[in-house]
Amino acid sequence: MSGIDLLEAPDPRAEAGAIALAMRGVLETPEKTAALVTPDRRLARRVAVELRRWNIDIDDSAGRPLAGTPLAQFIRLVNDMLAGNFAPVPLLAVLKHPLACLGRTRGALLGDVRALERKYLRGPRPSGGLAGLRAMLDGDSDNESKAGSRAVLVDLARAIEPLVKLPDPAALDVRLDALEAACRALMARPDAPADTVLEADPHGADIAAFFESLRAHAGLCVAIPRQDWPALFDLWVARPVVRDRRPRESRLFIWGLLEARLMQADLMVLGGLNEGDWPKLPETGPWLSRPMRAQLGLSAPERRIGQAAHDFVQAASAPQVLLTRAGKIDGTPTVAARWLRRIETLCGKLPRDEGNRLLEIWTALDTGPDAPKPVARAQYAPPVSARPTQLSVTQIETLIRDPYSLYARKVLGLRDWEPVDGPLLATHRGTFLHAIFENLVRDNGGSFPEDMPAALMGTAEKLAGEMPGGAMVLDFWRARLAALAEWFATYERDRAHPATQVWVEAVGALQLQIAGAPFTLTAKADRIDRRADGGYRIIDYKTGQPPTQRAIDNHIAVQMTLEAAMAERGAFAGEGVRAGAVADLEYLHLSGRYPPGRARAVKLEAGLFDATLESVENLIAAYREADKPYISHARPNLITFESRYDHLARVDEWRANMLAGEDT
Fold it and tell me: Which pLDDT belongs to residue 38?
């Protein structure tokens, strides 16, 4: 049995990787050839993918499904985009596909698509499809950022117009004509206009032949509903098999059992040697029993096993042979092929040294040089010159609880992006409710209409299409919003000190000198009321639980008290709020449940505002010291939700190590 080696891999991925490594090694010897012989198409595709690690395109005699070509994949994505009503994920899959150009250069389109994604497609899904996206852009005041995004949507709408205007249901040939016209417009670029762009694609001729074969049978097909078209197209395009026209490595091959009967290479790799793959299990079919097949003169199903055994013997007779199999497939243990077991029964164990060597090398390719080391809690002390000199009052609270998150955002300049078509979160609900009350108060100037529920719902309807997730919040919260409107009307009517003037989303800045250097404290107050007695009331809307009085007194929840200290020092003068005493701090807890809302006043002790500001100045001064680090989760008992920077700080790792250390 010289020249024959056995490779037993733990799983198909390892088997494919070791086979690819063996075939790559053959190229080191001039004129030497190698071939993988297997009836397992999944293994063949895995090996082809692994060989691309070395930029090797191998010749696969079985070809590949037309559905797997880039052009067919692009057409299928166009179908999915229409079927999904231009949802963010299928929309971006089309616009970011290498074949999409919309009449421009690829780089010019990508720049505008990325701007569209970042500002309008991340977070909750916009409602209303393509029209809803355009309405969202129209409601955005940032004209500079939306110009490129608008151009993309206009060009896209023009390109897919033939598909949008199709009747439902539509005849097969009509659908194919509209799909081809739309794809040509989507793929058009300056050097390849729409009327020639399909023909210029490497697989354009294959797609054209496929479309013509469908058109030839269009008369036999009933009109196809819009919702059925993507699945039908995917089914049909998966059947044709095509050969790539790209240059291939001339000394490496993938053969099926039929081709291997006629050809031989210097190294023959016989892969997938498991029962059920090589040989295939005999099947009689659902219609004819074995006696019936014999009466009709049909061969027994077991005949194919004999043919597979013959193919194995022919291929294994090469000068150099590598036999491979996977011990588990999809987590299920496998059984070695019967002739592999027969050989080892008669001839003893086959050599495994070469197979083990290939597996070790392949495993080492994806293994780092060093073993993983436990990570310590993240804490970094950047130079003082790199530390922030301006923070908002909410960022001060972050500095108290989780300094590392502030370090990542303000020092490293990292901004967290929401996922594309992300879930509706509590933050989106809070932002939407803030916007409703902000607009309601601003539009009425503090003198609220008698029909408060109608006014509030009208404001909500207006904002729903302009804000990410607004339509979903409105759908789920419609009854709660109506209850909130009733409660808010009662709250405004029954207050002991009605407002004579109201400011919403008031922006303020307070200049400080801390540790000999300037520092700016900023804030955006949800609402500031001037009372009839001249004092100010600062109101903060909360959709979650407001902070406790104890947290406020201990200078942990500092947002409201800092805003009060800033207001008394004239920090909001730019908004028309002159310096003056703050008489009330009030949280409006907006839950929509029972009760729909609750007003909670903060108990104000003498000197509370000044003491809070002093504690913050001391905190900032401490971070002016060069050796003061920004620690991840400095006060974990105060953190009630996961930070978007926790993965960067590797919180789960160091916390697990810390707990393990405590256990030991």
Answer: 93
